[in-house]
Amino acid sequence: MTLRINGKRLNETLQSTCTTWGALSNSTGMRRLALSQEDREVRDWLVAECKALGCEVKIDQMGNIFATRAGTSKTRKPIAMGSHLDTQPAGGRYDGILGVQAALEVLRTLNDHNIQTECSITLIDWTNEEGARFPGAMMCSGVWSTESATGLQACWDIKDLDGISMKQALEETGYLGPTPADYRENGLEAYFELHIEQGPILEASDMKVGVVTSVQGMKWFRVKVSGVEGHSGTTPMQGRSDALVTASRLITAVNDTARSTGLGVATVGVISNDTQSQATIPSGVEFIIDVRCSTDSMVEELSTAIFKKFEDIVASEANKTSYEVIRTWGLPESIFHKDCIEAVRSSAISEVGTSKIMEMKSGAGHDAAWTSKVVKSSMIFVPSKDGISHNPAEYTSPEDCSLGAQVLLGAVLRYDEGIKDGSIP
Amino acid sequence: MTLRINGKRLNETLQSTCTTWGALSNSTGMRRLALSQEDREVRDWLVAECKALGCEVKIDQMGNIFATRAGTSKTRKPIAMGSHLDTQPAGGRYDGILGVQAALEVLRTLNDHNIQTECSITLIDWTNEEGARFPGAMMCSGVWSTESATGLQACWDIKDLDGISMKQALEETGYLGPTPADYRENGLEAYFELHIEQGPILEASDMKVGVVTSVQGMKWFRVKVSGVEGHSGTTPMQGRSDALVTASRLITAVNDTARSTGLGVATVGVISNDTQSQATIPSGVEFIIDVRCSTDSMVEELSTAIFKKFEDIVASEANKTSYEVIRTWGLPESIFHKDCIEAVRSSAISEVGTSKIMEMKSGAGHDAAWTSKVVKSSMIFVPSKDGISHNPAEYTSPEDCSLGAQVLLGAVLRYDEGIKDGSIP
């Protein structure tokens, strides 16, 4: 008989912790920015829960939490399950949070039935996945993987809008841990991540579980447009060098180019204006472009097309301004490992049958994209109502949350069994 | 023999107080936001200087400072000179500041020579002229005139970006005074304002003094564009409702419409984005449009053309968003009074001759625009290097600053003489 997670307990825990730590008033939305007071408190709660289950808890140098339930093997590394507890400034209750709460429910279920696994089983809460407070999404799994261009010290130095550095925030919340944020010193056998789809595909095709095989490639560019300040009442239109007008043309071009090429998606989600005074012509405007495509080469192609358009706009404009790309980040496309994909597929089929599962690429970035660079990884998706995410209206039904946790449990046990019987090396 | 101001003292006082209170590092720029620590300290200094000259100092309910040197008449109200000591976030040392410092120099000169005037002579420092901290330019002269649509309580309630209200800032700096902010209870005979031109005309035509006859009409609109939040990686380009993309098209249209119609100038100096996260499609973007034309009817015509363009853009866009004008302010065109214009003209001619003065309209708004609605008013302009203002590079030579102060003194004395001899009623 298949071991069953407790869906009621999972959903009650998820809802009550969201209500307590970070709920927006008048909606089911969440604002739980990385290393904020709300994030610190829910992390403290998680650590206490895991310790109460008998787990050993390690905090690494980026604040990533590793809570480990011991297995019998002395030589094997842990099989991990995880995601993130932080949210967007006006996000929902499921993005990231479901993956961590489902991992906790798996640990509770293993305890309830005194299950002895071969490998240790580890729950992970990755810090600052959203990058909403400290710019740089999937920041801390990136550091742990050592594959991100932004390493430990550079991430420690990143500041939020109030000038507080990541390292300072880690120290102040008590999450600057001693464990190296490096997979070579704190390694895993495999990594599974349950997540909501954050898109409309599963719901639209009446599927219950997405067996995720890859994550699309992404690149971000921070662009600064420079003009010349001047008085809005006395500077003739002809002599102007208005950075916001040029930025507006460029942002329009980002959107138009993504639509016309059909290569992928491109979004400007952040804009800031140096002067920000109604009587002053803006001289410095910054914005961030987010480009995502199925493959890295398509990301390159779309980015190149966008910047070609930028050159044309700035060259042809009567409004004389200049622009520069002042910083870039990126996440290469990630192909998940067949051993993990197979464990998820087998677990999902046993729950809902072959007709209700589908193989998918992830449009969003996830911590699993970084882990997959250095340990076998894959993901499980469950449906998002109307495909909405990063929004208070984000919703996944209690039944789908439970189903996801059940598939996660099955995948972990199948993988553990594969190691025990030698079918997984 | 004409009474002479002390140009060396004027310029030394202006430069040293700028260096002490609000100087930007590494430039001659200024950041002295209304009721900031720097503004409070320079106001405290000004009050002390005026009291040392024997002036009576009154502070009104909006923090406007009135420092009065007594005249002989028991029935006449004071003749006033003034401007503002606050600056843009990255402004210069002359915009507003010169007008107050020149007024102080006039008071000092009158004292130095024991001049007895018929009317009392009042120096005024108007609070928050720039509107850079508390939105709404010329806010406090507007309240005093009782002609502004935004009255005392509404202005008290206006908040800065940190959520501090105008009233709270007045209280905390000690400038919430007991004198009614109302010209009917704290009246003036006339008002003269010396200001830098903030445009290129005087310099380009090799003129020394502008005899200002009017201020152009202005209107501001706060516009909010609403879309739907969504994940930047999983929301297809086709289904998007991106408020920043629409806002960008609208801001571009503001600029294009002002250029193509030639009716005046239109600027977007302020933009803000509700979500401000690189992985979230923006759902709420606000910006402020500043429209200025020679006449009120041209302001109406240009505004109407801009909003017509907005309708077309929003209706034709694949990107489904909506917009609303959530607030407007305005300053009607102001025609200055012949008695004041004549006093300025006569004083300027006696200093530089008729070939070096020109009649001008002001492109920028000034406190004199509000005072002119309720008391006889006019302004004096001196040249701005390269027409630059609201910028650290703003510059007016010490000679031109002194000349402006001298013309101001002459205008005030001529006006006072006119009252004495009955030529001014």
From TrEMBL, chains A, B:
Q: Name one Pfam family in it.
A: Peptidase_M20
Q: Which residues cross the membrane?
A: none
Q: Which residues form the Peptidase M20 dimerisation domain?
A: 215-317
Q: Which residues form a coiled coil?
A: none
Which keywords does UniProt give here? Hydrolase
**Stored CDD domains:** M20_bAS (cd03884)
Query: Which InterPro entries does its entry note?
Result: Amidase_Cbmase, Bact_exopeptidase_dim_dom, Peptidase_M20, Peptidase_M20_dimer
| MF annotations from Gene Ontology | hydrolase activity, acting on carbon-nitrogen (but not peptide) bonds, in linear amidines
Family (UniProt): Belongs to the peptidase M20A family.
Q: Entry's NCBIfam families?
A: hydantase (TIGR01879)
Query: What's the protein name?
Result: Related to N-carbamoyl-L-amino acid hydrolase
